[in-house]
Write a structure and sequence with these properties.
The protein is α/β, with parallel strands linked by helices. The protein folds into three domains: 30-199, Rossmann fold (3-Layer(aba) Sandwich); 274-326 and 329-448, 3-Layer(aba) Sandwich (Rossmann fold); 455-553, ANL, C-terminal domain (GMP Synthetase, Chain A, domain 3, 2-Layer Sandwich), CATH 3.30.300.30. It is 35% helix and 23% strand. Strand 15 and strand 16 form a beta hairpin. It is globular, with a radius of gyration of 24 Å.
Amino acid sequence: MDCSKVKSFNKEIERSIKEYWNLDSLSDYGVITLQYRDVARIIEKMHILFEESGINPGDKIAICGKNQCRWGAAFFSILTYGAVAVPILHEFHPEQIHDIVNHSDARLLFVGDGVWKKLDADKMPRLEGIISLTDHKLEVSRNERLTYARENLNRLFGEKYPLNFRAEHISYYEDKPEELALINYTSGTTSNSKGVMLPYRALWSNLDFGNQMVGTELKAGQNVLSMLPMAHMYGMAFEFIVEFMNGVHVNFLTKVASPTILIKALADVKPCLIVVVPLIIEKIVRKSIMPRIQDPKIRMLMKMPVVGQRIKQKICGALTNALGGNFYELIIGGAALNQEVENLLHEIGFRYTVGYGTTECAPIITYNDWKNVVVGSCGKSVVHMELKIDSPDPARVPGEILTRGLNVMLGYYKNEEATSSTIDADGWYHTGDLGVMDADGNVFIKGRSKNMLLGANGQNIYPEEIEDKLGGMALVSECVVIQRDEKLYGLVYPDPEQVKQLRLQPDDVAAIMEQNRKDLNPNLPSYAQLAGIKIMDSEFEKTPKKSIRRFLYMNTEV
């Protein structure tokens, strides 16, 4: 692996703060705004706190809370001191948070108010201090030096900078490419969380990718709306880091992103780039666009050359305006995009693209600019990365997606067995995802190898492909396909709003689902057809990036 071109990531943070000193930097949408110089001041105060408390470069500092501007400032303060950040998803169960803090050997924990109420400090006995993200007060201190430093922080800061704190005072820890930057615990779609050790080269490489792909479209002073969890690499990299380094004002949506709140925020912020998981765009498309084009007359008109183009432009314009009207492109990632929704987005000429990545690659693996999108594909291998399909015929026969390069993790923290089974002797990271690749290098995901089912005669069945078709049928809100005694069954959670609106009884819903099954099966190979559909009473449990934790449902009675 050639690290000769890799630059210091922390020095990029330093450069951006100095360059954009007086610009707005991070905001809790509608509440508070920090300029770059305010972020620099918080970073400097935290450095004093760390130093006075005896924290050393390389020590672990965890951070757990909802998205907020002080989360971003705390995260950068950890890295630029030379400590190792341990971002923890605030949506994890309290016991998971306790376990991660302990497993990571964290000495300090930054915590949001909502999370702190659920935690038990006694279950994290090795922590020396718990610091509030809101105002940096000490929730718990087991270190006298930490207590003294926090009580005297303003005085210590004033003594260090007696006249004024200015941009030229900043000089951050200079990292090395292979040095550990953060440990990010996976959200556990298929198993329990593992601590992904990400080096600075992976952070820099993802930043360099972002700069090369969309950097010219990001202008200092523009806005983005951050909706994805910051402790997940997808949101951290492309709703926060890339924007911060380019002088873009990051607005954190601190409330639950209901359609009403989201549409208002997008209209106010007018983001220059939008990064979402499929669930968000699918809901918007299904509720605001698909009803418009269900009329057979409209569908017929859309097929006519001139009139059809005008209708498509009108629909595309309405969707674009609903999302703020100012974005270069909408990037979709984190899970598979429903094919019906993508076909519609492509048909109307909407500026979207689908990327693919994993936590282990911090996160990006494949991407295409919206102008080069190939329907059904998640793009091509990105800069600084190689990719191959482990298959005798990669264009036709699905195989595991393998990748290597600057983005790939160092391994799993305290888990050499999992590391050696994931990264082979030649440095290839085995993603566990199955796909094919066309002659132009476009990758098409077929599913996860752990999810692949075997038919009665040894056929490979990819449940995600069946779910994609079933998910677009009447009343289906969410679905998972499972296997029982060589037969396939669909688990379906019906759309509660539609059920209520249509005043449907349980027998009515069951009849509609059975009709869905009959309509679906002729479009599937005989070995992949559904033997039945089971209606679920509640939504499927999901990871914070809104992927269904399907392993929880594999043994469901049907």
